[in-house]
Design goal:
single chain; 457 residues; alpha/beta; Rossmann fold; globular
Length: 457
C-alpha cells in the first residue's frame, strides 16, 4: 500500500462569474443598447465556448486572481485555486485554514470529486468519506435509516458492512427516536449529527471534513472532535477545515494555509496558525482597521457625564513592542490608556478577562490586586499590566476594563470592550494544546509519584 494517501499536483480551478449589466441613464443610450444587444449576446455565447482555451492561455501567470487575455482582462473569470501542490501521508491529520474565499471548500470539492480542476491533478489512494456541508449526499424524502445505507453505498460499502456499523452510527448521532423519519423534517442540527456520524463510522480510509461542526451544539462538537481523534489514531487520514483554531491545533499535526487560492504556508500546525494570524493582522492594518496589537480604541470624549474613560488597550511583548498574537504561557503586557477631566485621588485601573459564557476568569487592578498607588491626573495617561506567564488556554475571551475607587465605586466600567483570541501552544509537551473547551486555565504544575500513602512529601 502506498505511503501517500493524497497527492495534489499544480491544481488550479477557474470559475466564470456573473458581471453587472451596463445601465444607461439616457433614452439614447438605452436605444443603442437595444440595437446592439443581439451582437453582444452572440459574443457572450462565444466566450462561454472558449472558456477552457481562455484559462489555458491567461492562466500562465498567477500574479492576479483575474484571468488576463490578449484582448484585456475579462472580469467574469476568477481563479479560486492556483497551482496548489502538497502531499498527505497515510494516517496524517492535515488542518486547512484560511480566510473566507481563500479556496478551502473548492479544494475539498476537487478532492471529493464533486468538481474537476481546470488544470493539474489530484491522486487519492483509498475510499473517501466527505462531509462538506449539512446533509451532503442525503435525500430529503428518504428516512434517516435509508440515508445511512445510501451514503454507505455511495462510499462503496457493502450492505453487510453498513449493517455492522448501523447501531454505532445511530447511537453516536443521538437521534434514535427519529431514525425512521424523512430527513426533510430534520432540523439542521439533526442532519449534521447524522451526516457526521455516517462519515466517521463507515470504513473510509480518508475523511474530508469542511466547516460543519459550527452547526451542532457545544456538546456534540466535543463529541465530534473526540471521534476524529479516535479516527486519526486508527491510522486513517483526515483533512479538516475549520475556523476553530483551538480544534485545529488539538486535532492536526500539520497545517496548510491558503491565501487567495495559493498556498501561503505548509508545515507544523502551530507555525501555520501563527502564520495565519499574522496574515489576518496585516490585512486588517492594510484595510484601515485597528492595528493587529490594538484590542480597543475608543472615544476620548467622556459621555454620560463621566469624568474619565478608558481610551485604548494594546498588547505588547516584554520589550514593549507590538504583539499581534497571544499564546498560552506567553509573557505579555496589556497597556491600558485612559483620560481624566479632573484629578481623582487614589484611583485604580482595572482589567478583566472572561469567558464568552459570562464567566469571570481574571481580574487585575493597580489596587488592591496590584501595588501601584495611582492618582488619576487630568489628561491622557497609560499603565502597563505585565503577566509573566499568561494562563489562559487557547480560545476567545471577552475583555472588560474600567476605572475605579478601590473597593468603593466604579468611575467608568465596560464589561465587554473587546475580545482577545488566545492561540494554542503545546505547553505540557503532550502533543496537544490546552483549549478553553477543556479548561480555561493552563497552569505550570508537576506530578510526583507517591509510592505509599505513608511517604512524607
Amino acid at each position: 500500500m502506498s505511503a501517500i494517501a493524497i497527492r495534489v499536483e499544480n491544481v488550479s480551478k477557474a470559475y466564470r462569474i456573473g458581471v453587472a449589466e451596463q445601465r444607461h441613464e439616457t433614452l439614447m443610450g438605452a436605444m443603442m443598447s437595444f440595437i446592439t444587444s443581439p451582437l453582444e449576446n452572440y459574443r457572450n455565447l462565444r466566450k462561454l465556448s472558449r472558456f477552457d482555451d481562455a484559462t489555458k492561455v491567461s492562466g500562465q501567470s498567477s500574479s492576479t486572481p483575474v484571468v488576463q487575455s490578449s484582448s484585456g482582462p475579462p472580469s467574469d473569470v476568477i481563479w479560486a485555486l492556483r497551482d496548489v501542490s502538497f502531499e498527505v501521508k497515510n494516517g496524517e491529520v492535515l488542518g486547512i485554514i484560511g480566510r473566507n474565499g481563500a479556496g478551502k471548500s473548492t479544494l475539498l470539492k476537487i478532492l471529493s470529486r464533486i468538481t474537476e480542476p481546470t488544470r493539474g491533478r489530484a491522486e487519492i489512494y483509498g475510499r473517501v468519506g466527505s462531509l462538506l456541508e449539512v446533509g451532503t449526499g442525503f435525500h430529503p424524502d428518504l428516512t434517516g435509516r435509508e440515508n445511512v445505507y445510501l451514503n454507505g453505498t455511495i462510499l462503496g460499502m457493502k450492505k453487510r458492512e453498513v449493517d455492522g456499523k448501523f447501531d454505532e452510527i445511530v447511537e453516536f448521532s443521538g437521534i434514535e427516536k427519529f431514525i425512521d423519519t424523512p430527513v426533510k423534517r430534520y432540523s439542521s442540527g439533526m442532519r449534521v449529527r447524522l451526516a457526521f456520524s455516517v462519515a466517521a463510522h463507515l470504513e473510509a480510509e480518508i475523511l474530508i471534513i469542511d466547516e460543519v461542526l459550527a452547526v451542532g451544539d457545544a456538546e456534540f462538537q466535543k463529541k465530534c472532535l473526540g471521534k476524529m481523534e479516535d479516527v486519526s489514531r486508527q491510522g486513517r487520514t483526515v483533512l479538516f477545515v475549520s475556523h476553530n483554531m483551538a480544534a485545529v491545533s488539538n486535532l492536526c499535526g500539520r497545517g496548510l494555509v491558503l491565501n487567495d487560492g495559493m498556498i501561503g504556508f505548509e508545515g507544523n500546525v502551530n507555525d501555520a496558525l501563527q502564520h495565519y494570524n499574522q496574515q489576518v493582522g496585516a490585512s486588517g492594518q492594510q484595510d484601515g482597521h485597528l492595528e493587529p496589537h490594538v484590542l480597543y480604541s475608543g472615544p476620548t470624549v467622556q459621555r454620560n457625564g463621566a469624568d474619565c474613560t478608558i481610551t485604548r488597550i494594546e498588547v505588547l511583548d516584554a520589550n514593549r513592542n507590538p504583539k499581534p498574537m497571544v499564546s498560552t504561557w506567553d509573557r505579555v503586557v496589556f497597556r491600558l490608556c485612559y483620560q481624566s477631566n479632573r484629578q481623582i485621588k487614589r484611583g485604580s485601573v482595572v482589567l478583566r478577562l472572561g469567558g464568552q459564557d459570562g464567566s469571570r476568569l481574571l481580574l487585575l487592578s493597580t489596587q488592591p490586586d496590584g501595588t501601584l498607588p495611582l492618582d488619576l491626573e487630568p489628561g491622557e495617561h497609560a499603565v502597563d499590566c505585565e503577566i509573566e506567564q499568561f494562563p489562559l488556554s487557547a480560545g476567545r475571551y471577552i475583555v472588560g476594563a474600567g476605572l475605579a475607587l478601590p473597593n468603593t465605586a466604579w468611575l467608568w466600567w465596560r464589561s465587554d470592550l473587546c475580545t482577545l483570541s488566545v492561540f494554542p501552544r503545546d505547553v505540557y509537551g503532550s502533543g496537544l494544546a490546552p483549549n478553553a473547551e477543556r479548561a480555561a486555565l493552563a497552569v505550570n504544575h508537576q506530578w510526583i509519584r507517591v509510592l505509599s500513602s505513608n511517604d512524607s512529601v
